[in-house]
Amino acid sequence: MKPLSICLILWLFVHGLRAQTKTEDQNKIVDPKFLNHIYYYAGDSLIELEQSTARMVNKTKGFGYGGSESGYEMEGEKSSVRISTGNNIRFAIKLGMSMADPSMMIRLYKLRAAKNKREAILDSQGGMYNRSKNTNSDEISFNIQKTGNDVYLIIPVSALTSGEYGFLNMMMANSNNRKVSFTMFSFGLDQ
User: Fold this and answer.
1) How far apart are the first and last CA of the chain?
2) Checking CA distances to 124, which of 28, 63, 64, 177 falls within 20 to 30 Å?
3) What are the tens digits of pLDDT across the range 95-128?
C-alpha cells in the first residue's frame, strides 16, 4: 500500500510542477529586441513604436504679457505607427539596468497636432492680464508590471482615446548648442 501512495504523491507533485510552468510561460512576453526602446504589446508579439527626436521648447506670447508655454515638440502631425483603440492597451520595455524603475525614466504624453508638428505641453501660464489660465501638462499616468528579467509592461491607468501619443525617455537626452532634445517613442490611436 505504501508504494502506491508514494507513487500517487509523486505523480501529483510532478503534475503540479507542469501546471505551474505552463502558467509562468503564459505570463512571459516576447523579449524586446533593443534595450530602452518602447514597444506596443500585441499579445503574442511586439510592435516597435516610431522613434524620433523631441525638442524642449519655450514659447512666449506678446513679449511675455500674453503668457507662456513650455513643452516638447517633434516633426510630423501623425505617427506612422497606428493602433486600434481598446481597453487592454499595453506597452513593453527592456531595461539595461536591473535596479531601474521605469516610472522614473519614462513619461507618457497626449500630443497635440499643430502646423506639421506634434507637441506636448508641460506647463502653460497666463499673461499679465490673464493670470487664471494655468494648465498642467498633457502627461498621462501609467502602472508598471514586471514580467521577466528586466522586462516591464507599461499599462495606462485610464483608457486612451483616439489621438496621438508619445513616450518620452528621460534617459535618452541630447544637448547641442544649449538646445535639449529627448528620444520620443510615438504612436497614434484610431477607432
Assistant:
1) 64
2) 177
3) 876 666 788 889 999 999 888 999 888 876 666 6
